[in-house]
Specification:
The structure holds two protein chains of two kinds. Chain A is an all-alpha fold. Chain A folds into three domains: 102 residues, no CATH class; 30 residues; 47 residues. Chain A contains seven helices and no strands. The chains are: A mainly alpha, B mainly alpha. At the A-B interface, α1, α3, α4, α5 and α6 of A face α1, α2, α3, α4 and α5 of B.
């Protein structure tokens, strides 16, 4: 990328654009991608259509929330470090403020009987939502014996033996690395 | 010190979860419950709040857990923690993302991480299911209780709706209404 001087105005625009994106996407993550596309590609012409695909790919293969990854990446592409900083700040700020406000409200109402009944129902609904997320993750997962075994092992480690989730994540990454190195080695022969 | 602990815990969550959204749930659940920052019921309740407010789940839940344990500054520390790993890693990767994307190491790790997420979310479904259906521990009596039967009914109905791609907010609203309706039935007291 050629070094260019980024104006204060671009940085400010990045901030306000991502503030808008942060304030209007419910559910976060993938729900944000179409909005980023509309604002950043079609309206502001900051990055190209192809770049959006890169944003998705990069956000998926680096840790952390998709929305933060995408905001930092687009901001950096458009206006360097300051752009990355203000885009990320913009996308986080609405969530932060709304949840701070809500936590006061929740504390006020959590002892009310109606709210408790409502949440008893809601918890059952949330379980259905998590199950749906599980199915969509399963669909994106590679379908082979290795990945079935690894998913089963991760499940048993956490659900039955209470192994630390962090340890399981690291172990699975290492197993994937070892398996693909082994497969690549066999292909060479 | 609570602020440092909030920052560090959410930093680890930000650094070791891939895929965003519900992929973050298993690690968030493990860490937040282990620290006693939220009860398992509060966490499931909050998932519904997060689905119905804008912004990524990771940012919402870190702000909320921080707010509950360390007030406004706690919320700030936790949110900074969850955002920082993404921000720093994207800054590093943005320059050489083509090389990063096609790197054997990255692809190998992802090969293990995708099934890991499936197994971990399956474990989260089981532990959330325990919270939803068996508040006071699993027993044969609990299995026949009106509270269990009502939760199971709401869950099944919402599962059918979510398979038909109903919007999450609609599912939460409907479960709340059903929860309130069921809560006031005479045999529930």
């Amino acid at each position: 990328m050629a070094k260019q001087k980024h104006s204060f105005k671009t940085t400010l625009e990045l901030f306000s654009t991502f503030l808008k994106i942060g304030a209007f996407t419910f559910g976060g993550g993938y729900a944000m991608i179409p909005l980023i596309q509309r604002e950043v590609v079609e309206r502001k012409h900051w990055i190209s259509e192809q770049d959006i695909l890169d944003v998705v790919a990069i956000a998926e293969s680096t840790p952390g929330p998709i929305a933060i990854n995408a905001a930092t990446f687009v901001g950096y592409r458009v206006a360097g470090f300051a752009g990355a900083f203000f885009s990320t700040l913009g996308v986080v700020l609405p969530s932060f403020l709304i949840i701070v406000a809500i936590s006061f409200v929740l504390r006020q109402f959590e002892d009310s009987r109606v709210v408790q009944y409502a949440f008893a129902g809601i918890r059952a609904g949330v379980l259905a939502l998590i199950l749906r997320a599980l199915l969509s993750m399963y669909r994106q997962c590679p379908k082979n014996l290795f990945s079935y075994l690894l998913a089963a092992a991760a499940f048993i480690c956490v659900a039955v033996f209470n192994v630390s989730v962090l340890l399981v994540i690291l172990g699975c990454a290492a197993a994937g690395l070892a398996y693909s190195a082994f497969a690549a080695g066999r292909m060479k022969k | 010190m609570i602020f440092l602990e909030l920052f560090w815990t959410f930093f680890m969550i930000g650094a070791f979860t891939f895929g965003g959204g519900y992929a973050m749930l298993p690690l968030v659940q493990a860490q937040v419950l282990a620290h006693g920052w939220l009860s398992s019921e509060e966490l499931v309740n909050f998932i519904a709040v997060s689905e119905s407010t804008p912004g990524p789940f990771a940012v919402n839940v870190s702000t909320y857990a921080g707010m509950q344990t360390g007030g406004l500054f706690g919320a700030f520390c936790a949110t900074l923690g969850v955002v920082l790993p993404s921000f720093l890693i994207i800054l590093l990767v943005a320059r050489c993302f083509v090389k990063f994307q096609s790197s054997r190491v990255v692809q190998g790790c992802m090969f293990g991480l995708k099934p890991a997420v499936v197994g971990l979310i399956a474990a989260a479904v089981v532990s959330t299911g325990q919270t939803v259906f068996f508040e006071n521990g699993f027993s044969a009596a609990a299995l026949g209780s009106p509270a269990f039967l009502c939760s199971a009914g709401i869950f099944l109905l919402m599962l059918i709706l979510s398979m038909k791609k109903a919007h999450p907010i609609l599912i939460i609203l409907l479960s709340a209404v059903l929860g309130i309706g069921v809560g006031y039935l005479p045999f529930m007291a």
